[in-house]
Amino acid sequence: MALLDGIFDIYMPDFKFWEDKWADRFCHAPDYRKVTIEALKEMHRQVGDLVMDDDGIAWKGLLVRHLVMPNHVAGSEKIMDFLANEIATHTYVNVMDQYRPCGTAHEDETIDRRLTAEEYRSAVDVARKSGLTRLDPRIRPRLIFMRSQ
């Protein structure tokens, strides 16, 4: 990571799991949390908090993506506490609800279903309670169809 200092303006990493047992089980990455924490700290040191213009275009900084998973597998509460307390409360976080079981996920009852609305709301709530102030607003464009006359 240190070799990349000055190369990138924006980092957009994922923080998927807090507990190494889940990272090892689902991604074969037993030291996932340690490596991710070190990388996030270095990324933030290099580029700081996300800077956007008035149109919402990002110019520089760190944007962390977090995929909420069924049965609290991701450890959202601890991840949000880490981001708020060890990176910055101004860290821009995209709390994502797009988890869909595919591939071998159907073989594991822990992750063999889509997320519930309550699981997603809970992750957003813990992000706010941790002190994070910049959560992606999830504004999705709406298509408007006009009838020709």
In round numbers, the mean pLDDT is: 91
Q: How many helices in DSSP terms?
A: 4
Instruction: Give the termini separation.
Output: 58 Å
- Percent of sequence in beta strands: 5-15%
Count of discrete structural domains? 1
Annotate the secondary structure layout.
Blueprint: E1 10-11, H1 20-27, H2 32-47, E2 51-52, E3 58-67, H3 76-87, E4 92-96, H4 117-130, E5 134-135
Parallel strand pairs: 1-3, 3-4, 4-5
Antiparallel strand pairs: 2-3
Description:
- By secondary structure, this protein is α/β, with parallel strands linked by helices.
- It has a single domain (8-135), classed as pyruvate-formate lyase- activating enzyme (Alpha-Beta Horseshoe), CATH 3.80.30.
- It is built from four helices and five strands.
- Strands 1, 2, 3, 4 and 5 form a five-stranded mixed sheet that branches.
- Helix 3 links the parallel strand 3 and strand 4 (92-96).
- Helix 3 packs parallel to helix 4 (117-130).
- The longest helix has 16 residues, at 32-47.
- The protein is globular.
- The termini are far apart.
- Mean pLDDT is 91; it is low at 140-146.
In short:
With 149 residues, the protein is of the alpha/beta class. It has helices at residues 20-27, 32-47, 76-87, 117-130, and strands at residues 10-11, 51-52, 58-67, 92-96, 134-135.
Please tag this protein with its features:
alpha/beta; pyruvate-formate lyase- activating enzyme; 4 helices; 149 residues
